[in-house]
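User: Batch of two.

Assistant: Item 1 of 2:
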Amino acid sequence: MKISSIREVEKIADKIKKKLLPGDVVFLYGEIGVGKTTFARLLINSFENEKKLKKSEVLSPTFNIVFEYKIKEFTIKHFDLYRLKNDNDVKNIGLYENLEQSITLIEWPELIKNKPENRLDLFFEYKEDYNERSLIIKTNGRLKIHEF
């Protein structure tokens, strides 16, 4: 699908939010600056809005590697694996711990060898017009039954 505005990304994030449950994982693929963190921010803020929580300032976790956001009865974990070198690094940051108790967003997931079953793969790409993006959504596991 083609994305031409932040409002369109907001609508997609809101639609995806309605399908996600603790234990689900969202892989965010794409070049630097293509909108992975923007999507994560809009998704997290959509959950916060639904639960009448104060909106968090969602930053890229590139240097911290992970940020957590408490959404009443569950947590959203937002990982950025850009600076990691291998699957051992992934294990050492605790990515695989307690996956079933949170919704997990992962930027730069290419290093992950054992991909979680219930996951969405979101592929963001620049279009010729640098202000537009394309988004391909692939569904896996429990999420395969949902249309996005």
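Item 2 of 2:
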Amino acid sequence: MSTTSGSISLHVTIHLKPEDVPTFWAAFTPTYDAVIAEPECTFFEVYQAPDAPGTISWVENWSATPEWLIGVQLAKPYYHEYLAVTEPLFVKPREAKLLKRVGEPFVMTKKSNGRFLE
């Protein structure tokens, strides 16, 4: 079985009061734009629980090591303002899981899933 060597996936879930979701999006959007512009970021998708609009999750895939993600990427200045605004909104602790991607043959994305960036 093939693996995606040096490729990791970060899965994050946060919990907010529904009335704080617009404040979250306002802080999240510029950070999202900065993250997806990083050459090592190969995938980023955000999800919202249909029965709990304050529960927001996302998946980020990186062509990097866990050490690089934690030591280099997460230390970038654009996270500071985002965290200062959003962390006080959390009603439960943030959940994060870092996984190694399996890769081919167990990866597929159809063009109809969303936009592609080069």
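Residues 21-36 form the longest helix (16 residues).
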